[in-house]
Write a structure and sequence with these properties.
By secondary structure, the chain is an alpha/beta fold. It has helices spanning 12-24, 42-55, 69-75, 89-99, 113-125, 132-146, and strands at 2-7, 28-31, 60-65, 83-85, 103-107, 151-152, 155-156.
């Protein structure tokens, strides 16, 4: 798979670990940064990875900040992205099966490297179940259409 990864300073160490784990597993990994523990702003990296996922340039993405929460919030502003912050492999399975999540965010300050590997494995190896979940995910996309830039609640603004 082609996987974009990114982090801020707080997620740098775990992002580096996940990146080499994915490369060793044979994935084509694109690292959008950051490349050190110097302080940066997580939305800048969330945007790069989220855009790649939304456009189809990436099959999926992994973003790491201190909590994974800021990355999740920022990535979900990009239409077509369904980013989930995951700290438990079981929920990675559910996020794929039921929500067709297409971007994973991790908490660099709260998740150890081995747990992150298990989360990533679960996320990448689980397929969307479709069926009744398809209709629900389509309703999320419909919300994005209603609230697109310049349009508020279906009306031009
Ligand atoms: C940086 O201190 C921290 O706020 C950031 O990494 C992230 O946890 C935000 O959600």
């Amino acid at each position: 798979m082609r996987i974009f990864v990114g982090s801020d300073h707080a997620g740098f160490s775990l992002k580096e670990h996940v990146k080499s784990y994915l490369e060793r597993a044979g994935h084509d990994v694109v690292d959008v940064g950051t490349h050190s523990e110097d302080s940066v702003d997580y939305p800048d990296y969330a945007l790069k990875v989220a855009r790649a996922v939304a456009s189809g340039e990436a099959d999926t993405g992994v973003l790491v900040c201190g909590t994974g929460l800021g990355m999740q919030i920022a990535a979900n502003k990009v239409r077509g992205v369904r980013a989930v912050q995951i700290m438990d492999p079981e929920l990675a399975v559910m996020a794929r099966k039921h929500n067709n999540a297409n971007l994973l965010t991790l908490a660099g300050r709260y998740t150890d490297p081995q747990t992150a590997e298990r989360i990533v494995d679960a996320f990448l190896s689980t397929a969307f179940e479709g069926g009744r979940h398809e209709r629900r995910v389509e309703k999320i996309a419909a919300i994005e259409q209603e609230y697109r830039p310049g349009i508020t609640q279906g009306k031009e603004s």
